[in-house]
Amino acid sequence: NQLQGVLNRLLDLRVERKDTILALGGGVVGDLAGFAAAILHRGVNFVQVPTTLLAQVDSSIGGKTAINAAQGKNLIGAFYQPKMVLSDVATLDSLPTRELRAGYGEVVKYGLIDDFPFFEWLEEHGSDVLSRNRAALCHAIAVSCRSKAAIVARDEREGGDRALLNLGHTFAHALEAESGYDGRLLHGEAVAIGLHMAFALSSELGLCPRQETDRLQRHLISTGLPATVDQIELKTLSPEIVMHHMRQDKKVT
Questions:
Q1: What is the pTM of this model?
Q2: Which stretches make up the 3-dehydroquinate synthase N-terminal domain (predicted)?
Q3: 148 catalytic residue (yes or no)
Q4: pLDDT tens digits for 121-147?
């Protein structure tokens, strides 16, 4: 598999604990390189250089490293902090539009969990972010990174507040698992649907005003992100299948 191949290559290169592994790429590259660094020689230095919006605002920050298993997403991994994270917004210039939009799904999450003024800003400037306006992109990335870093600083190992960062992700991971990770559904797209599903469920339980759920749905749709499962091609999807995948989620254990 990919992990074994990376580890074999690092061993062939005689990488030692004092060396540094550079993770240059998106979230999958960062997770794979970070997990390899965590287990090689019981810990080798590594640096994250994320080149996608999703990786810059989410996966490169916080020290979570993981790989997928046949049973579900990110089930094999470790908490292992990089020595630093270097994000250059210029790397997003060549990012495919769909990938940029998917990363925006994670950006929206930060406006929902602890920074409503940021969500209001996104409602006004989300189109600027997605059109790659440099100032808007830098602001969205900086606010998102500060939000996640503050939560991780309070709860690095996900014993309390860090669970906030999972908003929408239990639904999202179930949708991704059913898609088979075949590219039909990107992580950020699944997160967008998961966010709306979480808000809709909260509304059904009387915990969230329906108008807030509708407001979120309008914003997601306005940016081109899916908000409901009927916007994606998963013909095998059913409530029973979603529940099956949710029971495999690592947060259940």
A1: 0.90
A2: 2-101
A3: yes
A4: 999 999 999 999 999 999 999 999 999
